[in-house]
């Protein structure tokens, strides 16, 4: 295999996918490449992925590499070579015989992950899952005690301009299968017109479907300037001590924002905000709700999410995977009966209308003359 192309580099895959172009080679540093990142690389139409970390470390069965391979995008792990110091965006490289060549000199040794290798690595990861689960539970319980203010109501909720009282609220995270799920509930959004919250990149997901978020909540690291400018209200997720690194970006864009200091994830505080402001129903799309989700996000526990879902559970509908519940297909016999039903009033009208009957008689006579019958 020989692949030649220009490279784009970024240690954060979600940042890389915003700047890489069709036909380029992605150079990342992403341990345990997750499904969302893989799908983003596929949508960016890269020709190859070079990972300076282990694409499958064995901690848990992450699906990113297998998704790339199924999409015919080769993925390589770097065995030797400091690519981030040797390459810059736009450099032309060649991948040949597990070597990375730049300016006719080998600068790295690569290992291509084949489908069979990925299957073997995932099987080993499956066997390690129980050990990882035990660590995850212990970590979750430890931090649940520290973050119990989520349940006890001691968290200070910021004042917002958006009205939530007795309204349905849609919270969108750019997580697994968010496109399919948004497509499935598209009629619901158009009909009910819920308050819409985009969590970081979830705001761009909404824009893809033609919806402008009422609120964007997050640390502002994966949402576009376009989404921030278009949305009606911005809430920056800050650390519990009030420090909000994401606020600098908002100020740079000359936009206004409110601060929400809280532990946990941005999707947690989005749901909590909706609940505390009197939402009648909270519909969540693309959210993270299980151990694999959180391990993919680099988190060792899900204390805040566990606590928030305990609190808002009576009003929460998780639409994740709803696209897989039912796929309607129009059967041919239904089309036939619709056609038959539509023809009945036409036939009745013709039978009782003398002018139409006369017209049909005239048409038959002319047809017979033309045919010489």
TrEMBL record:
Descriptive protein name: Uncharacterized membrane-anchored protein
Domain SteA-like C-terminal: 320-370
Positions in coiled-coil regions: none
RNA-binding found in the keyword field: no
Listed NCBIfam families: division_SteA (NF040608)
Domain Thiamin pyrophosphokinase catalytic: 192-233
The UniProt record lists the keyword Transferase: yes
SUPFAM superfamilies: Thiamin pyrophosphokinase, catalytic domain
Organism: Natronincola ferrireducens
């Amino acid at each position: 295999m020989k692949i030649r192309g220009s490279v784009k580099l970024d240690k954060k895959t979600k940042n890389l996918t915003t700047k890489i172009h069709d036909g380029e080679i992605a150079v990342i540093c992403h341990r345990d490449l997750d499904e969302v990142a893989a799908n983003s690389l596929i949508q960016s139409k890269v020709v190859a992925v070079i990972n300076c970390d282990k694409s499958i470390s064995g901690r848990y069965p992450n699906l990113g590499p297998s998704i790339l391979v199924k999409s015919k995008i080769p993925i390589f792990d770097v065995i030797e070579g400091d690519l981030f110091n040797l390459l810059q965006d736009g450099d032309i490289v060649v991948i040949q015989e597990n070597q990375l060549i730049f300016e006719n000199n080998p600068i790295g040794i690569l290992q291509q992950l084949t489908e069979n290798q990925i299957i073997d690595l995932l099987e080993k990861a499956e066997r390690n899952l129980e050990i990882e689960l035990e660590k995850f539970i212990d970590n979750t319980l430890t931090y649940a005690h520290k973050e119990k203010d989520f349940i006890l109501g001691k968290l200070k909720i910021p004042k917002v301009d958006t009205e939530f009282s007795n309204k349905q609220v849609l919270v969108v995270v750019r997580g697994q299968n968010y496109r399919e799920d948004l497509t499935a509930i598209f009629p619901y959004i158009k009909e009910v017109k819920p308050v819409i919250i985009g969590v970081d990149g979830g705001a761009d997901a909404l824009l893809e479907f033609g919806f402008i978020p009422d609120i964007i909540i997050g640390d502002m690291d994966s949402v576009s300037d376009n989404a921030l400018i278009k949305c009606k209200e911005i809430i920056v997720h800050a650390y519990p001590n009030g420090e909000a690194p994401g606020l600098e970006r908002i100020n740079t864009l000359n936009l206004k924002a409110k601060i929400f200091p809280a532990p946990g994830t941005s999707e947690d505080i989005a749901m909590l905000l909706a609940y505390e402001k009197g939402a009648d129903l909270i519909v969540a799309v693309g959210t993270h709700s299980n151990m694999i989700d959180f391990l993919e996000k680099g988190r060792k526990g899900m204390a805040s999410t566990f606590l928030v879902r305990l609190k808002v559970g009576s009003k929460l509908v998780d639409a994740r995977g709803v696209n897989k519940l039912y796929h309607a297909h129009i059967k041919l016999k239904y089309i036939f009966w619709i056609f038959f039903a539509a023809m009945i009033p036409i036939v009745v009208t013709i039978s009782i209308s003398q002018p139409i009957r006369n017209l049909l008689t005239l048409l038959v006579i002319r047809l017979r003359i033309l045919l010489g019958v």
